[in-house]
């Protein structure tokens, strides 16, 4: 298993370098950060001086080599806009991103499993239809709208929670709740369909014949055997969140990596974009590795080749 | 056996299951929230009873806290409370007044201005403010080698030199009659801090102002504390305010206007900037005012259709400016010039272009009859996320242009970099087939019309889509003048460009500010948010 983990990490590192190169090539072609940093009517000479200071007037290959050689020593350069090391700026955002991701999913996954299993036990029943509607609403609701509604109700109307910001538990509740809605819906739907399929298999009939209740069958047998698609979707949701929940971060002023990343792209701040890509990629690689190892744990038939 | 029966006979398992559902979120939240996180400061002591600390809600975080960023909308709300410039503007009259300088005068050699500096001023790090510190700070912030964006407001290159301890000469390469106006932007950082802690230049500002930098938690907040040693505490009149009550200021950054509006309603903030008209109306207290920003349409004059003055005039008459400013953008003043009354060179005699669709149609018909290609492709475009409801405004304009007979018009919102690339191409790079009619907000921060002329009407202007040798001559002559003569010359240029429909000024939109009831404050024309000017009760 260790060999497998090392090999996956090695492959991921190669992919990451490829991604960083592509990002460099694309960003280099789609806009001029010096022009964006200045007021629109800045004189031409001021613009040219700033380009020279930022090194944007150097030949392409020189800039590329200079940038790439920094990657291998963990130096992504200074953010063009903020004038401080880009990697440090990206890393500063990791705790907030991880906090929001973990808390949202720690809330969403159990709730989604509860909804999914209750639906799957009696497919087509009133309970199933109600819960399916709830999960569909979770997938469909616009998080922008939901976030603002939660602020209006819990902060403005009742004064129970702060509108936005970052800090103690009270600041976490609204963004985590808003963010949890979509995965609740999505994972509940996957859990339901996986369980319904599992519950039709012959061994389930045998278990019923042995006198086990539906609940026991689901909890002790079917849920574990249908866990693979649930784990896959959950891993997918984690990876999405680690990329940054931009809308939620914007509404609640949550200092995650998403808003930093989007801001860097808008401003064509290449060092910061590269640093964000690097940090997000590291987190996603780690999550994918954990998901793969979880597959092996849950299903011994899924052999890991080292 | 039913599920309910199973639950009844297995209470311990039920508790375990519930715990399984609830505890992960709770435990992780508590553990992670406790990992080095502290609560955001919720600001003042409420809406009444005397505020000793206030929280200000802004839409964006400063990109830098270095002095070079003291001109920008993201930088000045923080920096102008920490650092001071040689000059400021009177909050009521908008006249230039002394801040760190007490007198200033152009010398017999018109390339030199002499400034007498205020005595008894110290930087927050304890170092003295004198001519040496002022010269070092100015030369650093405006250095060609450093190439900071603040140089946008610089005219000819300058050098500051020490005459004696409290006398400073600023010499420019060519005479600059508006040098004091330019220097009103340039805050002076501590020479000691620059020399001893150059790595903190972008993050730890050290100035002479009424508030000292305390902390910057990136992505979260910036905190200031009162500078009890500030010179203005003893000389309130000269300082144009000294807010002795407010000891702590916290800035929070909330991009979403609805959230900023909620913050001032709940008391999380005592001052929030840039709300919509309706949001401001729901705040405990609302203030509004126009600034130095004017919404304009700029026409690509190299285009074969837009080259014709009749087509340009028709465009100017074709749409209802009041509809855009008052109904779409939430109120403001209609404009006849790309600068407002705050700028030297503002011509009061000019009236906003009227809304006259019939005449516009007639002009297009005449142009068409003379062979002007009124079916040339034209694009009405605006930058995403910059002007309030710009998408609706450009759709309105595009429809109006179609209605008057320009048959190939489309509207398009453009991503920031794409829009700016087109907007700042310069006259020489605009190809005849482009046909861009850009909706943009122009700010004349210098409050001198000459900078807008240089940008928008000069052949080599960064944002110019027009070139006229006669206008170049008029501009060059006006730039040599000062005072009333300069004002008159600039007003004449305003009339010149008005008659040629080079740009179509739409209006100056209002900016709305939500305040707690205990704060008395009026917006300044330059948009600065100076806590010293806030009266609290």
Automatic annotation (TrEMBL), chain A:
A GO cellular-component term linked to this record: plasma membrane
GO molecular function: dipeptide transmembrane transporter activity
Annotated compartments: Cell membrane
Superkingdom: Bacteria
InterPro entries xrefs: BPD_transp_1_N (IPR045621), MetI-like (IPR000515), MetI-like_sf (IPR035906)
Topology in membrane: Multi-pass membrane protein
TM segment ranges: 12-31, 94-115, 136-160, 241-265, 277-298
Transport as UniProt keyword: yes
Keywords on record: Cell membrane, Membrane, Transmembrane, Transmembrane helix, Transport
Main location as per UniProt: membrane
Keyword Hydrolase included in the entry's annotation: no
ABC transmembrane type-1 domain boundaries: 94-291
PANTHER family (alphabetical): DIPEPTIDE TRANSPORT SYSTEM PERMEASE PROTEIN DPPB-RELATED
Homology family: Belongs to the binding-protein-dependent transport system permease family.
Protein name: ABC transporter permease
Species name: Phytohabitans flavus
Lineage, uppermost ranks: Bacteria, Bacillati, Actinomycetota, Actinomycetes, Micromonosporales
Automatic annotation (TrEMBL), chain B:
Alphabetical list of InterPro entries matching this protein: Peptide/Ni-bd, SBP_5, SBP_5_dom
Solute-binding protein family domain span: 95-427
A Pfam match: SBP_bac_5
GO molecular function annotation: peptide transmembrane transporter activity
Gene3D superfamilies referenced in this protein's UniProt entry, alphabetically: Dipeptide-binding Protein, Domain 1, Dipeptide-binding Protein, Domain 3, Periplasmic binding protein-like II
Top-level taxon of the source organism: Bacteria
Alphabetical GO biological process terms: peptide transport
GO cellular component labels: ATP-binding cassette (ABC) transporter complex; periplasmic space
Alphabetic keyword roster: Signal
Record's protein name: ABC transporter substrate-binding protein
Organism for this UniProt entry: Phytohabitans flavus
